Fold this sequence. Notes:
Strands 1, 2, 3, 4, 5, 6, 7 and 8 form an 8-stranded mixed β-sheet that branches. This protein has an 8-stranded parallel β-barrel with strand order 9-10-11-12-13-14-15-16, surrounded by 5 helices. The relative contact order is 0.10. It is elongated. It contains 17 helices and 16 strands. 36% of the residues lie in helices and 17% in strands. With 543 residues, it is α/β, with parallel strands linked by helices.
Amino acid sequence: MNIRKTRLSTLVIFIFCFLAFSLNTYAGSEINVIPKPQKFSLGQGYFSFNPQTKLVYADNALKSVADAYQDVLKNEFSIQVTHQNNKLLSKNAIYLQLDSKLGKEAYVLDVQTDKIVCKASSNAGLFYGLQTLAQLIQTENAKSTVPAVLIEDAPVYGWRGYMLDESRHFMGKDVVKQYLDIMARLKLNVFHWHLTDEQGWRIEIKRYPLLTQEGSVGSWSDANAPSAFYTQDEIKEIVEYAAQRHIMVVPEIDMPGHATAVGRSYPEISGGGEGRWKDFTFHPARETTYEFISNIFDEVVELFPAPYIHIGADEVHFGNQSWFTDPQIQKFIKDNNLKDEVGMEHYFVRKVCDIVNAKGRKMIGWDEIVNTGVSPDKAIIMWWRHDKPELLTQALDKGFDIILTPRIPCYFDFVQDDSHKIGRRWAGDFNELETVYNFSGNISNLISSHSKQVLGMQANVWTERIKDKKRLDFMTYPRLMAIAENAWTDNKAANLNYNEFENRVKIFLKYLDQFNINYFNPFNKNSTPEPWGPDRQDVLADG
């Protein structure tokens, strides 16, 4: 009888351990964090917040991190904690600690039943660890808990970006700040701000007031839309707001093409043109043009501490027809042995690159600059033309650092479901969530031999057919989650798969619900119908 009891007890214990292991394995595969951490192991039990829980930092340099996270706990979870500077590890506390052995943005998050320890070598790493912690907090019946887990994490790329075009349609600083908040939760760290183009100039330049008095009037859908732009004080406010979230703001001032708003404000530096293409380019053969650009950049570098200025430099051939007949341009081409109008364009890019470098910044341009003669140590290239992989290969072979942002699948003005009517397609292709998610795997063969030159990747939202926040939200989410995971998580090390990602997206959508984000729900499409957007046809074909 005793033997039977012993065998039965052993069997019960075995079954219990097996079930516990199975549950932990299942829970571990479903850890609800985006982007998914590189390495984690789930423990037993939970850490529970209570009125005595403290936020403790081991170094005074971490006080700003503690202050910011205290606000997150209060505002998002109604968790009240006090914080203090104390080098001693205490129980019932979130303990922030610097560890010089960890990488620049790496962190270790150790959640135990009696305490939480977050370690990193920098404030940025601690910030990312705490963003992970925020996603792990579960609140039920006014009780907040975190599952016991050990996470060791670091990004695969240093550039994890989101680009917003506010020239076509202006969104305003409240929208931008909300986007910076969500970017921070997703560990995105670059906000590429497209501030000038044909339709509007959106940044105050005090030396040239007509840029905002005249150049900021209009939008893609309404040429008479009221003036809309950011004052320099607003720019500084947003840049500081981003910096507090460890996000770098990179301005884009488009040239030599996409400069219509400049040309109509200051015709003396316009490259000419008629009709649709009137004032599309800067005049490339006048020294006054380069003085104008240099003066603008003097103010830009004071507003944006980032080490980069993006000049666009794309699609110049759309509107440079006047270059072929302008006597000054033709003489300049001949006198400087530039061969043709393409040579003139390349000269402009090299000249502006020197101006940017002289201001202590590195130039970024779209992949049209690959063959302009710009030195790889002076510029970075964003590869955007997915149909021209040879440009990516050429850029890498020439030694350029690269940011991956091909329109398939990184352009979020492309539709995300076959039923959607407003937005772009490319030969019928569009950018559904799974297409975006599979990006890293599909691109690996092109970059494998030059992986150190790939700085990272970003999503781009062009706003021709996005007039308001409702549609901007719809086109951005949940696809931005897929870009965030591509840019952060090593898809091999973390065993990524799309089905498992979908489960985590469903959880993150609940976070977006708190802010009334009008996202597209791919799991219940009828619940989120496509919102209206300007659908007038342009001279240029879609794509």
